[in-house]
Amino acid sequence: MHYVLIDDSIAFDGYTSARRPLGGAEKAFASLGGALVRRGHSVTVLNRIQYPTWCEGAKWRPIDDPQITTEADVVIAFRKPGLLGTVRQAKKRFLWVTGPADYLNTQGVTDFFDSLKPTVVFISPSQVSGYKGPSPTAVIAPGVRSPFYEVETTEIDPFPELGGDSASHPVTAPTIPPPHAVVTTHPQQGLAWLVDIWTKIIHPQLPQARMAVYSAALHKGTKGEDLSAEMKPILDLVQSVADKNIVIVEPRSDRGMAEVYRSSRVHLYPSFSQDVACWTLQESQVAGLPAVARMVGGAAEHVINGETGFLVPDAMAFGNVALQILRDDNVYQNLSAAASAPTRRRTWDLVAADFDALVGGPAEAASQPQPALS
Predict the structure, then answer these.
(1) 10 Å Cβ neighbour count for 92?
(2) CATH number of this structure's domain 2-143+346-367
(3) What pTM value is reported for the model?
(4) Domain 146-344, CATH class in plain words
């Protein structure tokens, strides 16, 4: 079959996340094309890429290319309903939705769907209840890229900001990492809450522990670049508690972040209701990094409470279990081993198989096993 995947957000391709940081949704879109090719399909990917290229056997083309394809067996439009009509003739159309579904609940979208007859594909069961339209729906859990579960000796230093020099020798993650905590959530979605927990509960009892905030926006702010009015107070807050061993770090490529996760002790994930994907939480779990998260959003779909991390109701519980993981080697090891178990790996080849099953019909798709991360 010939698949056409369509996105009109930003310029990236199937190899971008191997070179530099890329958002979780964009990374998902970039990963599906190659997986479909490995299943024997021909794949065209249309997005904001500037020049045509090939990635993992898929043909990537600019979305405004005048020679854009006009026919496909399957069209997968990413997030925006308007992209469903980019290819005029298609046997099947899917709208792949990675966030809350409320934007689909308008009469205009319903009327548009009525003409094109798409199936709405969600990534999480928690999204389904938010969709009120009449179109058929399906849930296909996303995958995780291979650097997060393929462990190899690397030249990458997981903590270059500490001033280590690893350029001349291979780096391997320590069996028992130091008490380093990782934060990857958007700063406006709970970072101030985490800072309060760290300074009042964790740092006083474990002053050698370190909290690294991976944020592109905040890192730019530390270099003097402009920040939004909403972000500036957050940067000021984090910088004001630098003496509590809190640092801001620039995010890295897939391989770089995988090494960070394997070399750290806990992922502090505040969670929020609109975060149904939990992209970095999926990746860190597969890499073997225990997590502490609140019981909101999609966190419970990725963390097995008490086995791969902890899901907690409030700040006090959050701080206490994080502290336990940071200083108790046995707790860390048990949680890490369970998180990185091979049976929890959801590859993009499995995702592609689920899309193939969905193309075959709802009954066939429903009968296919869909392994998830939890």
Answers:
(1) 19
(2) 3.40.50.2000
(3) 0.89
(4) alpha beta
